[in-house]
């Protein structure tokens, strides 16, 4: 799904409009589940969910960013367990947030930026 979102703004907007983000934050999905893939390596379902959520931010379009940041449950689920992820995933999440959302040039209003961290505060 992340690859589909990264194809462009039009596709990302369509996915954001039609996708039910609540299925990503169900209690069963919140744990780091593993499944077997063809090459016999473990693949993290949770890591693919994180990549999917962050791929919307990677598009970098201010209008899409403002809209997608309102999906509080999605980013709450990603940021809530940030300390449990492997180092590569933590660096990926924080670098995308820094490069696309937290810098002043992102054109995302501070009120929308605070959604990411306000959700953590109120639900802790």
Describe this structure in words.
This is URB1 N-terminal domain-containing protein. InterPro entries: URB1 (IPR039844), URB1_N (IPR021714). The chain has 124 residues and is mostly helical. The chain has helices at 2-5, 9-18, 27-30, 45-59, 62-68, 72-80, 87-102, 110-123; strands spanning 34-36, 42-44. 20% of the residues are buried. A two-stranded antiparallel sheet has the order 1-2. The protein starts with a helix and ends with a helix. It is 64% helix and 5% strand. α6 (72-80) crosses α8 (110-123). The model is unreliable at 29-42 and 120-124 (pLDDT under 50). The longest helix has 16 residues, at 87-102. The protein is globular. The protein contains eight helices and two strands.
Write the layout of secondary structure elements.
Layout: H1 2-5, H2 9-18, H3 27-30, E1 34-36, E2 42-44, H4 45-59, H5 62-68, H6 72-80, H7 87-102, H8 110-123
Antiparallel strand pairs: 1-2
Helix pairs in contact: 4-7, 6-8
């Amino acid at each position: 799904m992340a690859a589909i979102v990264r194809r462009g703004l039009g596709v990302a907007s369509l996915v954001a409009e039609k996708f039910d983000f609540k299925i990503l934050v169900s209690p069963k999905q919140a744990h780091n589940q593993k499944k077997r893939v063809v090459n016999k390596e473990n693949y993290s379902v949770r890591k693919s969910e994180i990549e999917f959520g962050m791929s919307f931010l990677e598009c970098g379009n201010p209008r899409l960013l403002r809209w997608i940041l309102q999906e509080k449950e999605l980013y709450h689920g990603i940021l809530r367990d940030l300390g449990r992820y492997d180092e590569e995933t933590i660096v990926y999440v924080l670098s995308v947030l820094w490069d696309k959302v937290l810098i002043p040039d992102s054109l995302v209003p501070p009120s929308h930026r605070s959604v990411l961290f306000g959700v953590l505060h109120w639900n802790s």
